[in-house]
Design a protein that fits this description.
The complex is a heterotrimer. By secondary structure, chain A is an alpha+beta fold. Chain A is built from one helix and five strands, in the order E-E-E-E-E-H. Chain A folds into two domains: 54 residues, SH3 type barrels (Roll), CATH 2.30.30; 34 residues. Chain A has a five-stranded antiparallel β-sheet with strand order 3-2-1-4-5, with no helix packed on it. The longest helix of chain A is centred in the C-terminal third of the chain and has 32 residues. The model of chain A has no long low-confidence stretch (mean pLDDT 88). Chain B is an alpha+beta fold. Chain B has nine helices and 15 strands. In chain B, a hairpin with a 2-residue loop joins strand 1 and strand 2. The model of chain B has no long low-confidence stretch (mean pLDDT 91). Chain C is α/β, with parallel strands linked by helices. Chain C is built from 17 helices and 13 strands. In chain C, the strands form four sheets. A five-stranded parallel β-sheet of chain C has the order 2-1-7-8-9. The model of chain C has no long low-confidence stretch (mean pLDDT 91). Classes of the chains: A alpha+beta, B alpha+beta, C alpha/beta. Chains B and C meet through helix 1, helix 2, helix 8, strand 14 and strand 15 of B and helix 1, helix 2, helix 5, helix 16 and helix 17 of C. Strand 3 of chain A pairs antiparallel with strand 9 of chain B, so a sheet runs across the interface. Chain C: Belongs to the HypD family.
Chain lengths: 92, 358, 375
């Protein structure tokens, strides 16, 4: 229901309260970061953008853990397929 | 389970029947959707204009009419802002008209230019527009040989509108038609899509988004000439520039006219990162975004590689790619194989592509 | 694109799909509801159902904010937009939503000044630039969007922008889920939880689903692998006879949500005693209005709105579709009287709506599409 897009903070706009310049695949927009609780954000951090506001800071550790899990499933699957092929060759 | 599936098939057939019903304009007023190039535009054209003007030259509803050995087209331009990164309303008008003729397989020759000007419009702006029209005409080897000027009261128009007509000569035996696509044909896109539409959307300033994007407005007549020269007679079935409604709309028009399916691969369709970024941010599908210098070519499989080589030899076709193929079933449908490995139906656009938040 | 492309990998999807199939008990059918329209969009956009075994069906839920806005509220908004010196602003999604007297696009064609904005802050900017106009923001959306509206109102107050007001139509997700769970003909096995709403409300509010209704729920991200993974987690819970709230989208969703966003909402808005949802009827405490302290920026107090109720057409079975009782194509008017060009019911209105999504993407049977795309 709610379009949220990850973007990278490229600059904190000091002359405007609560604004940061955020890049999404090469395009940039000023995004309001006033909803981020006590979290200091800096250039290089990634945030989730919704209607011009940052709703949350993306947690790189959690992102990596999730990806590692997905990759492990992919790896296990590849291994199984490989094992299956080998056993078929042996049978053949 | 079987009964369920049978019932579903019945419903699907019912929908298809409903979709084939004669176009009827239900609205009482014109809305912006009628000008967006999607379904509403088609309904308006078929329900009002085709009903009134019906004749054999008009009926195919191609980009231009082919009469004797001539191609004839008209176009009007109401872009806001008038000046945008990569062009202005002037070269857009000339290139757009040239492209309509080129898509008929013709050599563009002569153009007309009509101007509807708002009281108070700066002459300096008009000079700038005229100069870029002259430059675009010269670059494409066409002449603007007649014109007209009207001025309306302040507030009755948005600065400057340009209306053109164009004629071109058909010098090749190949007759192109959206109805000519055949199963097995290759679907080629001539370059990265969506740059013009996104550039205009951002140039209006309302979205406050910055990007290093420029319009792709360009004359495609040289590109089409090279393509037609490289392929055996009759092997180029259809050419369409992907303007309003974008690539998705053009593919739907071809699939419908040819009663064939078109199957394209999402990950091969060239889209520049900035265009993709802006589309993700705005929730818009680049397949529906307008281009002004990109075309779709349907080419027989036998000539597909030759066509691609010819396109790559021209700066405007350097990133051309074979993005899909024509299939016999399901007729009238455009299917997209997604980068994720799934499949979806790409329908014609309903109304303008609007930025969404949901 | 980072945090996007890595979650769209086809090879991983195939592996995950094999795991999902292996988790399905032979002969058992599973029905999961993705509550959020954004998930519905992802499912269709990427063709995700191609990866799911036949035993798993995804039911598209009520989480599409424009779909659930009752027609009477759209009429009220058009009434406001038609008053002298008013500039109405809203998101692009809202432009085509039909009320009893047409949509914003129709009203615009009749002469109303209605503008599309990307952010409520853009509406505030328009108010600052047009001090002689009354600028109204048509606020829609769940808890994801409400904090942005609230922050904008706070900014308007701080800057003294008195010609800016909000027509508040924000809704809350939990009462809608509860309404679905309380429906007597419910046949769901679990929920894919709305990821972006949860950035604000966190995961705790869903605990009643597991505790009181014995259904598992997995809060999920919006990339296709996120959704496949959440289906995997739901099936794992069922296989292990567990009913819990799990957070698949921990990279974005903190367990406790965003306290600052919640504080902004409760500063500016308060719960309505009840609110009508298209297709679901009246649900108590399911929507927000501006609180009295912000009356100056409350369009409902500034303008005399008709507040008329437009009943959903009787032929429309959106309620059943939203609850997962009927499939879109089983509705009496689906695809004949009710199409995306001439929608009758809520589910056909927005491209996120269950019926519109099915109509646009699924009207040919998957078997036929699969056959056609096989190289």
């Amino acid at each position: 229901m709610c379009l949220g897009i990850p973007g990278e903070i490229v600059e904190i706009l000091n002359d405007h309260p609560d604004l940061a310049m955020v890049a999404v695949s090469g395009v940039r927009r000023a995004i309001n970061i006033g909803l981020l609780e006590n979290e200091t954000v800096a250039p290089g951090d990634w945030i989730l953008i919704h209607v011009g506001f940052a709703l949350s800071k993306i947690d790189e550790t959690e992102a990596k853990a999730a990806l590692d899990f997905l990759e492990s499933i992919g790896q296990a699957y590849d291994d199984e397929i490989a094992a299956l092929r080998e056993s078929m060759i042996e049978q053949g | 389970m079987t009964g369920d599936t049978g019932l579903e098939e019945q419903v699907l057939e019912r929908i298809e029947r409903a979709r084939r019903r004669k176009a009827r304009v239900r609205e009482e007023h014109i809305t912006l959707a009628h000008g967006a190039g999607g379904k509403a535009t088609h309904t308006l054209i078929e329900g009002v204009f085709l009903e009134s003007f019906r004749n054999p030259a008009l009926e195919p509803l191609e980009d231009g009419a082919v009469i004797d050995e001539m191609a004839f087209t008209t176009d009007s331009f109401v872009v806001t802002p008038l000046f945008f990164p990569g062009g202005d309303i002037g070269d857009l008008a000339v290139n757009g008209t040239i492209n309509d003729l080129a898509m008929c397989g013709a050599r563009p020759r002569y153009l007309s230019a009509g101007f509807i000007l708002e009281e108070g419009f700066p002459i300096a702006h008009l000079r700038r527009i005229a100069a870029s029209m002259a430059a675009a005409a010269e670059a494409a080897g066409v002449h603007i040989v007649t014109g007209d000027t009207k001025v309306v009261e302040r507030g009755k128009a948005d600065g400057c509108y340009v209306v053109t007509a164009g004629v071109g000569t058909l010098e090749r035996p190949t007759r192109l038609s959206a109805a000519a696509a055949q199963p097995g044909d290759a679907v080629i896109v001539s370059g990265p899509i969506g740059e013009h539409g996104i550039t205009i959307m951002l140039a209006r300033g309302e979205l406050d988004i910055q990007a290093d994007l420029t319009s792709d407005t360009a004359p495609l007549n040289e590109l089409t000439a090279r393509l037609l020269d490289a392929c055996a007679d009759g092997d180029v079935r259809c050419l369409r520039d992907a303007t309003r409604g974008g690539v998705a709309t053009v593919l739907n028009e071809i699939a419908e006219a040819s009663k064939a399916a078109i199957i394209v691969n999402e990950d091969i369709i060239p889209v520049r990162p900035d265009v993709r970024g802006a589309c993700e941010l705005l929730g818009i599908d680049p397949l529906y975004v307008a281009c002004e210098g990109r075309m779709i070519a349907i080419v027989a499989q036998a000539s597909a590689e030759a066509a691609l080589t010819a396109l790559h030899s021209h700066p405007l076709g350097r990133e051309a790619a074979i993005v899909g193929r024509v299939n016999d079933d399901p007729p009238g449908l455009v299917l997209l194989k997604t980068a994720f490995g799934g499949t979806r139906i790409v329908d014609m656009l309903v109304g303008d592509p609007l930025p969404r938040i949901c | 694109m980072r945090f996007v492309d890595e979650y769209r990998d086809a090879d991983t999807a195939r592996a995950l799909a094999a795991r999902i199939t292996a988790l399905c008990e032979p002969g058992r059918a599973y029905k999961f509801m993705e509550v959020c329209g954004g998930h519905t969009h992802t499912i269709y956009k990427h063709g995700l159902e191609d990866y799911l075994p036949q035993a798993v069906t995804l039911v598209h839920g009520p989480g599409c904010p424009v779909c659930v806005i009752p027609m009477g509220r759209v009429d009220d908004a058009i009434h406001i937009a038609s008053q002298p010196d008013v500039i109405m602003t809203s998101f692009g999604d809202m432009m085509r939503v039909p009320g009893g007297t047409g949509s914003f696009l129709d009203a615009k064609a009749r002469g109303a000044d209605i503008r599309m904005v990307y952010s409520p802050l853009d509406a505030l900017k328009i108010a600052k630039q047009n001090p002689s106009k009354r600028v109204v923001f048509m606020a829609i959306g769940f808890e994801t969007t409400a904090p942005s509206t609230a922050m904008t109102v706070l900014r308007a107050k701080a800057d003294g922008v008195d010609n800016f007001s909000v027509f508040c139509n924000h809704v809350t997700i939990i009462p809608a889920i509860k309404a679905i769970l309380d429906s007597p003909d419910l046949r769901l096995d679990g929920f894919i939880g709305p990821g972006h709403v949860s950035t604000v409300i966190g995961c705790r509010p869903y605990r009643f689903i597991a505790r009181d209704y014995r259904k598992p729920i997995v809060v999920a991200g919006f990339e296709p692998l996120d959704i496949l993974q959440s289906v995997h987690q739901l099936l794992t819970q069922l296989a292990q006879d567990r009913c819990e709230v799990e957070n698949q989208y921990a990279r974005v969703v903190p367990w406790d949500g965003n306290p600052k966003a919640l504080a902004a909402i409760s500063e500016v808005m308060e719960l309505r005693p009840h609110f009508e949802w298209r297709g679901l009827g009246f649900i108590s405490q399911s929507a927000l209005r501006m609180s009295a302290a912000y009356a100056r920026h409350d369009a409902e107090r500034i303008f005399r709105i008709p507040g008329g109720r437009v009943a959903d057409p009787t032929s429309c079975q959106c309620g059943e579709v939203l609850k997962g009782v009927l499939k879109p194509w089983e509705c009496k008017v689906f695809g004949t009287a009710c199409t995306p060009e001439t929608p009758i019911g809520t589910c056909m209105v927005s491209s996120e709506g269950a019926c519109a999504a099915y109509y646009n993407f699924g009207r040919f049977s998957r078997e036929r599409v699969k056959e056609a795309t096989r190289q």
